[in-house]
Amino acid sequence: MADGTDCPGKDKEIGRGDGSARLSGYVTSEDVDAGRYKPLRAGVSLQYANREPRFYASVAFNGSVWNMSSLNGKMELPVLTSKSGIIVDFRRIQWRQSYIYRYRYQKYVNPYDAKIPKQFLLQAKTETAIRYAEILLIYAEALNELDGSYDIPSWDGSAMYTLRRDVNELKKGIQPVRIRAGVPDYTSSEYQNKEMFRRNSPRTSDRVYGREPPLLRFKTLKDVRQRKKH
Question: Are 177 and 139 in contact (CB under 8 A)?
Answer without folding.
Answer: no
